Here is the input.
Amino acid sequence: MYLSETDKVNNLTKLARHRLAARALARNPGLIAHAYVALDQLEAMNGWWPALDEWRELLSRPVEEVRRLLTARTQDMDRLRIDSPFFRLDDHALDFTDEQHRRRIWAIAKRVAGISTRDEQWVRTPEYEAQLAKWMGGYTRPVKADVEI
Here is the structure.
């Protein structure tokens, strides 16, 4: 469940980047070896945490399964994508450091989050709307009327 609309957009941004990683893996399965190296670097920098072992287990699977899992819309993959080794492969054709590219992915994710019907884990509750009204000093976004077809 998303805590806010920003969380939803961030999740969709990570999903989009992993779709690009899955495509890159189709062209170059050797990226998995580089992902293992990235995991080792992350562990050396930050110490061990459970997600590292989960990533290692995921990367040990066949390439087609890794590609499928990278783009899976599950809570486990949403969580794993936060600490992805694929974000550290800028030397291996997966450069996510370009500011224009990052802004473009963010804009697309924000647009998708606003119109998404498939992924409605985050729903504005009356409690959230009341809190939002407090934060915004009484201003709230107009609610779209349901359109009957």
